TrEMBL record:
Region span, Disordered: 151-184
One family name in Pfam for this protein: MaoC_dehydratas
Name by which UniProt lists this protein: MaoC/PaaZ C-terminal domain-containing protein
Annotated MaoC-like domain residues: 194-258
Organism, scientific name: Spectribacter acetivorans
Highest taxon of source: Bacteria
Length: 293
């Protein structure tokens, strides 16, 4: 990223101003032969505090009063930086309307509570797909020695046209629904979007209430995709590898709130394949995999 726009921050940015910028952005898109420019945002010395860990564990179903940092929690720490990049003046697409279609997290080792980590978030380039364009948002957290502790790739979809340079790992989805395995079932209550938003900061209106979701074409509020991923990880916690591993998902159909969901997962020697489905239905909400890294 030799010609990247680099944003250096000394602390995590506030989220509310980024949502205000997004709400006041009425146009956006890529012109002919254009692509998303390279943008990188860096924040040194971020850390997970015990209060965030406890609140996140409670809303996502991880064991209470544990000092173990869930593999999905650092995404919450990075979210304000994601927003800063996606609402930067050089970023050409509208934030409202972007769809999170895939997410891949690799935990090289579990970060400790209170450990200072250097955070970097990057975008640049895009891929043409049948229903618009995709781009990858890369997030890396490194320790004081410069070793990567945690990284993720969030693949976003912007509906519409455009042709540009390829970037990232391409249009690759995790495995389909396992044919056999274990089951876990839970309820997604009507207020889970507001509860998760209170912890994660993701106050997208489609998650908060039926009234605000209807403004964007949904009959009811929908669950956050990253809450579904975290809740699935909590359900499979006993089967997750102890060492470095990758947790990857593709988001398929939204979960309307309130709603019931069923997790089907198949632990094996090569890892875990899993799917989140609607009970007594063919509807698939999310598919994913866990593999040793």
């Amino acid at each position: 990223m030799a010609d990247a726009t680099v944003i250096e921050l000394d602390r995590l940015p506030a989220i509310v101003p980024t949502y205000l910028r997004a709400a006041l952005t009425f146009s956006g898109g890529l012109g002919p032969d254009a692509t998303i420019p390279d943008i990188e945002c860096r924040v040194p010395g971020v850390s997970i505090d015990p209060d965030l860990l406890q609140r996140y564990a409670e809303v996502c179903g991880f064991p209470p009063d544990s000092n173990d940092v869930p593999i999905t929690l650092p995404h919450v720490l990075a979210f304000p930086v994601h927003m800063a990049v996606l609402t930067h003046r050089e970023f050409p697409l509208k934030l409202l309307g972007l769809v999170h279609v895939r997410n891949r997290i690799t935990q090289h080792r579990a970060p400790a509570v209170g450990e200072a980590l250097d955070l970097a978030v990057r975008v640049g380039g895009h891929r043409d797909v049948h229903n618009g364009i995709e781009f990858d948002m890369e997030t890396v957290m490194a320790d004081a020695s410069g070793n990567t502790v945690w990284d993720s790739t969030s693949t976003m979809l912007s509906r519409g046209g455009g042709k540009g340079r390829r970037s990232g790992r391409g249009d690759k989805s995790p495995p389909a629904v396992p044919e056999q395995g274990r089951y876990g079932r839970w309820e997604a209550p009507a207020d889970i979007g507001r509860r998760y938003a209170g912890v994660a900061g993701d106050v997208n209106p489609i998650h908060l209430s039926a009234l605000s979701a209807k403004l964007f074409g949904f009959p009811r509020a929908i669950a956050h995709g990253m809450w579904l991923k975290a809740r699935a990880a909590a359900e499979m916690q006993a089967d997750l590898p102890d060492g470095a591993h990758t947790l990857e998902v593709a988001f398929k159909r939204p979960v309307l709130l309130p709603g019931s969901v069923m997790l089907k997962y198949d632990p094996g020697e090569s890892g875990i394949d899993f799917a989140l489905i609607k009970p007594d239905s063919d509807t698939v909400h999310m598919v994913g995999s866990v593999r040793r890294a």
